[in-house]
Q: What sequence folds into this?
């Protein structure tokens, strides 16, 4: 599976992030699409603060789902990255399918 090559990476600082599965994945609270599956939905969740324990994140490299068993908001200033790739602007972080941040989200 090819997701293209990295074209652009920008870093900024955020005052809080969401730690998923005890730090396995840390993302911003909003504007960071994650591909998930749950009992009633499959697709992109734009704001990770809408995730719930029991949802599944998609691991495209191994064609499997990763169960979300813990979600914690971490209030600490941390450097975060915006990524743009040459194809669909999807990328994989710690085995999880993510998409580039949305500038003006509606969901």
A:
């Amino acid at each position: 599976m090819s997701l293209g090559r990295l074209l652009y990476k920008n870093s900024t600082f955020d005052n809080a992030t969401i730690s998923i599965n005890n730090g396995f994945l840390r993302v911003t609270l909003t504007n960071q699409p994650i591909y998930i599956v749950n009992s009633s939905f499959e697709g992109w969740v734009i704001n990770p603060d809408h995730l719930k324990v029991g949802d599944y994140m998609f691991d495209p490299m191994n064609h499997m789902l990763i169960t979300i068993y813990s979600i914690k908001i971490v209030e600490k200033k941390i450097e975060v990255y915006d990524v743009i790739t040459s194809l669909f602007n999807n990328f994989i972080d710690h085995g999880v399918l993510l998409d580039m941040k949305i500038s003006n989200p509606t969901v």
Remarks:
- The chain has one domain: 6-99.
- The mean pLDDT is 80.
- The CA atoms of residues 91 and 98 lie 5 Å apart.
- The domain at 6-99 is CATH 2.170.16.10 (Endonuclease - Pi-scei; Chain A, domain 1).
